[in-house]
Amino acid sequence: MLSTIVKVPNKLWIPRYKILLVILLIMAISSLVSAQLLSPSKILLTFSEPMSRESIFDPANYKVTANNNILVKVIKVGLVKGDSAVVLFFDKEENWLSYQITVINLKDKAGNPINADKNVADIETILTKNKPVSLLHSN
């Protein structure tokens, strides 16, 4: 076992502590964790933490692309209890095999913007029976 006590001068500890704090804050920024196809016209998005209701209901904050090149219009957004998930509603016109969802202009409850490096989710459509999701509110 190592039994040596090392003295660290305060002048070195403070800057390193600040760097560690900044890294921890960056890691704590909210991000899009997962996306799941609930039905042919609904996608469940789950975030890493509760999101602010300020802009969460605006369909323009969600870009959905089907089959790599078809822009899908989100017509309504529903909030799931706990504020850490939403359901996107859209009109399904074709038989799409994949989706890419990009989330923009959202903030978490603390007011931090969603992490721009982790704001995209992909789905391959293999529809299975999923548990129903109870919406808290939809716009």
Q: What does this molecule look like?
A:
The protein has a domain at 30-126: Immunoglobulin-like. 13% of the residues lie in helices and 36% in strands. The protein has one helix spanning 10-27, and strands at 32-39, 42-47, 62-66, 70-72, 74-80, 85-90, 98-103, 120-124, 135-138. The strands form 2 sheets. Strands 1-2-6-5-9 form a 5-stranded antiparallel β-sheet, with no helix packed on it.
Encode the helix/strand succession as letters. HEEEEEEEEE
Uncertain stretches of 5 or more adjacent residues: 1-6, 19-28
Radius of gyration equals 20 Å
* Count of separate DSSP helical elements: 1
Q: Which percent bin holds the helix content? A: 10-25%
Examine the secondary-structure arrangement and name the CATH architecture of the domain at 30-126. Answer: Sandwich
Total E-strand runs = 9
Which fold name corresponds to the CATH topology of the domain at 30-126?
A: Immunoglobulin-like
Strand content: 35-45%
Overall 3D geometry? Answer: globular
Question: What's the end-to-end separation, in Å?
Answer: 61 Å
CATH class of the domain at 30-126, named: Mainly Beta
Strand order of the largest sheet: 1-2-6-5-9
Note the main sheet: 5 strands, antiparallel
Structure classification: mainly beta
